[in-house]
Amino acid sequence: MTSLREMLTRPKALYGPFLAIPSPMVVEIACASRLDFVCIDQEHSAIPSDALENMLRAAAVHKVPALVRVPGFDAGAISKALDSGADGILVPHVSTEADARNVVHAARFPPEGGRGAGPGRSTDYGRNILKAVECARRDTLVAIQLETVEALANLPAILAVPGIDLAFIGPGDLGLSLTAAGRSGQVALDDAIELILKGAAEAGVPAGIFCMTRAEAEKWADRLALVICGSDTTQLVEGFEATFGS
Fold first, then answer.
1. Which residues are annotated as catalytic?
2. Which of 9, 25, 53, 134 is the most exposed place for a label (fewest CB within 10 A)?
3. Sign of the four-CA dihedral 167, 171, 99, 70
C-alpha cells in the first residue's frame, strides 16, 4: 500500500473524513466509500486507546491510510498512536517553532527525533522492530495544525522546522483566535488562510485544511495536498435530519 506521506506528492488533493465515533464498524463503513484516507480524531472525541487500535485495524483491512489527530501535544499520545499502527499524526494548536520541534522529536525515531521503539502493533509486537523503524522513517506522516494568531506570527519559523510533512489549517479555531484578537469576519479568516497557504508554498511544505464539504475546498483545491472533509458525526446528523427533520 502506498504510504500517505508519499500520496501527498500527487497532483490532486486527497480527501477523507474525521472519525470521532469509537467504533471499527464506522471505520469500515467509511472506508468502503473509496476515500483516500481517514483521520481518527482523539482531540474532540472519547476514543480510548483500545478502541483506537481496533479502528486502525479496520482501516488496515480496507488498505486505507489512517491519520490520528492526537488530543494535544503530548509525546505519550503521539507515541501510542504511532505504536498502534497509525500512518501519521496530526497535532493541534501548534503555535511556535518550539511546538513544531517538540512534535517532530516525539514522532520521529533517532536521529531525526527521540521516539522510542517498543513491542506494539506497529512492530508486529516486537517481531520486526528494526524493519518497523526503517519503514517509519520513510513513511510516517507528521502534520501540524495551525489555528491561532500566534501561529500566524511564527509561521516562517514553524514551517522551517525539518521533519514537518503537512501544514494543516484548522479554520474553526483559527476564526475564534482571530475574533479574540479583534479580527473577526470571513475576510480576516480568508486572509489568514491565504497567509498560511502562501507561507507553506514558499517553504515547500504541503498544505491541508478542514472543510465541511468538498465544495468549500474548491477555491483552494489546486493549492492543497489534503482535505479533511466533514466527519462521521456530521454525516449522521445530515442523514437523520434528511429523513426525520422538520
1. 44
2. 9
3. negative
